[in-house]
Amino acid sequence: MKQPLILLLMISLCVTGRAFAQMPNDAIYMSKNTACLALSYGHSSWDKYWENQLKRENLNIGTHTTQSAMAMLAVGVTKNLNVIVGVPYVWTQTSAGNLKWQKGFQDASLWLKFRFINKSGFSLHAIGGASIPTGDYIADFMPMSIGMQCRTATARLVASYRHQPTGIYMTASGSYIFRSNIDIDRDSYLADGRLHSTNKVTVPNAYDASVRLGYLKKGIQAEVFAEYGACDGGDNIRRNDMPFPTNNMKSTVGGVYAKFQPKNIGVNARAAYVLDGTNVGQSTSFSVGVLYQFRYIKADKNPNMHQ
């Protein structure tokens, strides 16, 4: 049961010389002519899920596990414009039953992050993202599928305030995700309480919001966060049936993030738990990453990130 923001929930991105993290929903930037390569591993598992709003378990599945390996690159074009790209390799499995495990490259993503206001610790950011499937994986074999097979376009606004003397910051963001229709390998399917005699499936758009409170200073970053994501419409999992791409998936997530980078090499970690949901698994997830910052063009003497 995948949320459209699987990339964002599984990964933490890059840092530069002063160990400041960067993600497509934060207010932290890499300097001009500086790039960062991030390699990360993500793990998410659940043994209970919400079938509509009924929380239940399924002994035919047991514990469902999704794992991912990600290579990502963040590039500082200017001090106010960053580009982030990445492609994950994802694999799923269950501890019981006979559902075939799935694996493969999922969706390639591209993000542009632009800071258009930055004054007295307060900043506003416009972020745009897009993704396309990179493999011919099966989208409607849920919950074993590794993705939704739809192309996406995301519009996001981020507001942030950082108190420079203490390093304490607070960030809030909101997004809307446009998702394309998909084709499935059957000529009919059930959705919205009726039979659709076609192989074309309308995947509902989605939206999300998050708040983050953290500390960022002297090579150390730590934060707590809350995230909410939901589809803009859709139906529910039918009783004792498998999920489907038309389902209205909703989740409320709480978690923590930490990073340490004394020089150009660093490490980070993230943990999260689904507190409440609809048509999703109640998953516990974590990710760990290794980060390497470098200059791709010889430029300014000060390579530090800006917030």
Explain what this protein looks like in three dimensions.
- Residues 1-21 have low confidence and may be disordered.
- β4 and β5 form a beta hairpin.
- This protein is mainly beta and 307 residues long.
- The strands form four sheets. A twelve-stranded antiparallel β-barrel has the order 1-4-5-7-8-9-10-15-16-17-18-19. Strands 2-3 form a two-stranded antiparallel sheet.
- The protein has one helix spanning 6-10, and strands at residues 34-46, 49-51, 54-56, 64-78, 81-94, 103-105, 107-119, 122-133, 152-163, 168-179, 182-183, 189-191, 194-196, 200-201, 206-217, 220-231, 250-260, 265-278, 284-295.
- It is built from one helix and 19 strands.
Brief synopsis:
The protein has 307 residues and is an all-beta fold. The chain has one helix spanning 6-10, and strands at residues 34-46, 49-51, 54-56, 64-78, 81-94, 103-105, 107-119, 122-133, 152-163, 168-179, 182-183, 189-191, 194-196, 200-201, 206-217, 220-231, 250-260, 265-278, 284-295.
Layout of helices and strands:
Layout: H1 6-10, E1 34-46, E2 49-51, E3 54-56, E4 64-78, E5 81-94, E6 103-105, E7 107-119, E8 122-133, E9 152-163, E10 168-179, E11 182-183, E12 189-191, E13 194-196, E14 200-201, E15 206-217, E16 220-231, E17 250-260, E18 265-278, E19 284-295
Antiparallel strand pairs: 1-4, 1-19, 2-3, 4-5, 5-6, 5-7, 7-8, 8-9, 9-10, 10-15, 11-14, 12-13, 15-16, 16-17, 17-18, 18-19
